[in-house]
Description:
The chain is mostly beta strands and about 280 residues long.
Amino acid sequence: MSYDVPENSVDDGEPYFLYLFNNGVTKHRFTSDPEPIFADPEETGTLQKWYKSSISHTEIEQTGNIERNSIDLTFPLSNAYARSLQKPGSEVVTFTMWRGHHTDPDGELEVYYKGRVVDVADEKLNIKVTVELASTSMRRTGCSAVYMRPCRHALYFPGCYLNVDDWKVPATVSATTGGLLLTVAEAAAETDQWYKAGLVIYDGLYGWVGDHVGDQLTLIGNGIAGLAEEVAANGSASVFIAPGCDLSAGPNGCEKFDNNLEFGGFEFMSDDNPWSQSIV
């Protein structure tokens, strides 16, 4: 006898469910049966104990509506694991449910539902855990490209594909004013504004350059923590400086780095807004 025989029979069917929650570190196993069950649906080679719990789930249906491809699991309020799911966590908790029949001597189990935990809520004397199909996450709207003339990628960061280690040069800060204006002799070796929108790297910390004239580099924001103190204490500080990009495809942008293939802007976008209407 196999799983299909009792599954297709009203008289012989005696279903039970196994529920597995896995956060990538710890696995929690439950069963809807009134007694613990020893089974190995994960095919680990060792029978695992599935603990009895007053757990139930809503009806499972397959629809084209992404909002209806989820099920609700109901735990008693006393269930310690369900209460632990209410605590904020960064890990994804996957969920797998198997269905079997007590009348099947072979003990075959079929995967009945597979998804991930997306919400946990109190319901008076119960805790409701909402699970949705893992595939639904692939059908949600993702991050689309920002439609803009300048490049949408941050220099030296993902999307730009330039490695800062290939472009940075060693330099020395000999003086600081207000923690933002730096005197860097090596910067004078390049034309003005070469390092504008570039980086000053000190002790692994990044500072963005807002202006570059001669040997003067002006940082933006709050500067770089500890740099001014190092210069004041020792008279100078060793740093790295990396050239900047004006986010264009021209000589001060991608062309400067021979990186035009990664330009993320839309230089020829229209000035007309397709979402607005004007009366002519």
